[in-house]
Amino acid sequence: MDSNNNNFTVVDAPEGISGSGFFATRMDKAIGLARLNSLWPLPFATSCCGIEFMATMAPHYDMSRFGMERLSFSPRQSDLLMVMGTIAKKMGPILQEVYIQMAEPRWVIAVGACAASGGIFDTYSVLQGIDRVIPVDVYVPGCPPRPEQIINGILKIQELVHNESGRRRYSSEYKELLAKYGIE
Amino acid sequence: MFIINQEILNLTSEKLRNRFGEAILTEEIEMDMPVYVVKKEIIVDLLRLLYDDETLRYRFLTTLCGIHYPESDQPFGVIYHLHSLENNQRIRIKTFTTLEDIAIPSVTAVFAGANWMEREAFDFYGIIFTGHPNLKRILNVDEMDYFPMRKEYPLEDGTREDKNDDFFGR
Q: What CATH number should be reported for the domain holding residue B54?
């Protein structure tokens, strides 16, 4: 009988070589494992997708199951920028500023049709997708998406985080990507 | 429905006609609200008179907005809604101008609250409020080089390249 009544699970070890008293694996595998289970999201919620996100955080859907117990409202301490809702053109530079303030490594998820493409707001005042001002890793479609879809997007982000090479952020491709947006 | 206080309304008309005469172009009751169309040159003095008058006391500027009637001879206008709180009487003042002469005097000296509303009318219609202390865009991005609420744009622009995806049906 299990005498341990702490009902928690531990992630599987990454692939590696183990022997008596040691375990060897790749650095980026170990770091990816740690990062993926302790992402600090920064919610940038501007409209109805933000309401769905509130449901995602709440006990019923419980985003903290994925290691996101703590939302960060400071860009300097967060890893994942979650943009949820319509971004007006006037908000564009502010969003970019928030992204710049985040420390590397950083990921971005665009939740909902508006953040991804401007959605129904095909008009002079609305940014036609946040990928016009910042690079986006995962797009979640829907108007608004259900919490399950947002969670699915987060799982995709976790996949990216898990498998990211330790050198990606130093690569010239990545620097080019940022330069395309006029960042750094 | 707004209540029309006939006594106050008569007094309003009388005072405006006495002071401005021909510059009051029309006066009528549209739906349930008195409307005066006036020449733009007198707008500041007119609002000042309505504000200062001890009986009328139109001291609340409910709203101020721009408007564009592209078919009209004088397509651009500004509409002022005033409310006399003591008399519970509302009136609407309209003034119109042309594109060539799009300047309209600012009423910020009478109502400080007109400041942002005039900026909004400038932002969307390009109406120049002469005498405004800080006439710049308020809601749209500063780089915008057109006035989006002017009725001169098609509802949807098929040549836009920022929505070139097949999924948007273009």
A: 3.30.460.80
H-helix segments, chain A: 27-36, 48-57, 92-101, 112-117, 147-163, 172-180
Q: Distance (Å) from the C-alpha of residue B147 to the closest C-alpha of chain A?
A: 10
Q: Is residue B162 part of a domain?
A: no
Domains, chain A, with CATH or none: 40-159 (3.40.50.12280)
Phi, psi of A6 (to 5 degrees): -80, 115
Nearest CA in chain B to A128: B162
Residues of B in contact with A122 (CB under 8 A): 156, 163, 168
Instruction: Kindly state whether B144 is in contact with chain A, defined as any CB-CB distance less than 8 angstroms.
Output: yes
Name the token pair of A64: 């903290």
Tens-digit pLDDT profile for residues B151-162: 987 766 555 665
pLDDT computed for residue A107 by the predictor: 94
- Number of domains chain B contains: 1
pLDDT band for position B170 (cuts 50, 70, 90): very low
Nearest-neighbour CA in chain A from B25: distance (Å): 36
- For A124, nearest residue in chain B (alpha carbons): B148
Does residue B167 carry a pLDDT above 60? no
Q: Residue B139 falls within a domain, yes or no?
A: no
Query: What is the C-alpha end-to-end distance of chain B, expressed in Å?
Result: 45
pLDDT bin (cut points 50, 70, 90) of residue A5 is low
Name the residue in chain A with its Cα closest to that of B167.
A117
Strands of B31-150, DSSP E: 33-38, 60-68, 76-84, 89-97, 103-105, 128-130
